[in-house]
Every structure is written in structure tokens, then in C-alpha cells.
């Protein structure tokens, strides 16, 4: 193939790739409509989020198969429907408020 022709083809491909890159990065807008709408309505949620129901077993990757130690700290308690709806154990969880709670989860993933 003629070196001059090859150089011209390569230069044109470079320009096409550059224009395609600029077009793809500058022309789109975020399409996360459902999440942004829910955030705009926060804390006045009246319906469930539009997600599909899970089907079948949850399968973990092999690298997650282990005994895991997990720690969490309860920093706040809220009862938005109180006193109309009373949940069991709500008052009993006050003992966990300021302290971390650690647990072992044996063989996560199997």
C-alpha cells in the first residue's frame, strides 16, 4: 500500500475517533430519572421505588466465600409512623445507640 495513502487513512481515522469521542462525552445527559425524582420527593415518599422483584437464588462470587466479621454502629432511631404504628423491639434497641455492635457471619456466600 502506498505510504502516502496509508498516512491519509490513519489521519482521517484519528479525526473520526476524536470527533466521536467529543460527541459521546459532550452530548449526553444523565438518564437517572427515577432516582432523581425520588430524591426530590424525599422525605415525602408515598410509593415504592420502581424495581423488579428478584427471582432465584442469590449467588455470591467465590472471593466472597469466607467468615466475615462485621461491625456497625446505630447512630439514630426514627419512628416516622409513631404513635399510630408501634414496631416491636424499637425501644429495646436504644441500648445499642452509642456503641458498635460486632458479629461474625460464617461462610457468607455458600
UniProtKB/TrEMBL annotation:
Keywords attached to this entry: Signal
Give residue ranges for domain DUF6816: 54-101
Q: Where is the signal peptide?
A: 1-32
Superkingdom of origin organism = Bacteria
Q: Entry's Pfam families?
A: DUF6816 (PF20670)
Its protein name is: DUF6816 domain-containing protein
Amino acid at each position: 500500500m502506498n505510504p502516502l495513502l496509508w498516512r491519509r487513512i490513519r489521519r482521517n481515522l484519528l479525526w473520526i475517533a476524536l470527533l466521536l469521542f467529543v460527541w459521546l462525552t459532550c452530548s449526553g445527559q444523565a438518564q437517572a430519572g427515577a432516582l432523581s425524582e425520588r430524591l426530590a420527593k424525599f422525605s415525602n415518599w408515598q410509593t415504592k421505588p420502581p424495581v423488579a422483584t428478584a427471582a432465584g437464588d442469590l449467588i455470591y462470587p467465590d472471593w466472597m466465600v469466607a467468615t466475615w466479621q462485621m461491625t456497625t454502629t446505630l447512630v439514630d432511631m426514627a419512628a416516622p409512623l409513631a404513635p399510630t404504628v408501634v414496631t416491636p423491639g424499637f425501644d429495646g434497641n436504644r441500648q445499642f445507640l452509642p456503641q458498635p455492635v460486632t458479629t461474625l457471619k460464617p461462610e457468607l456466600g455458600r
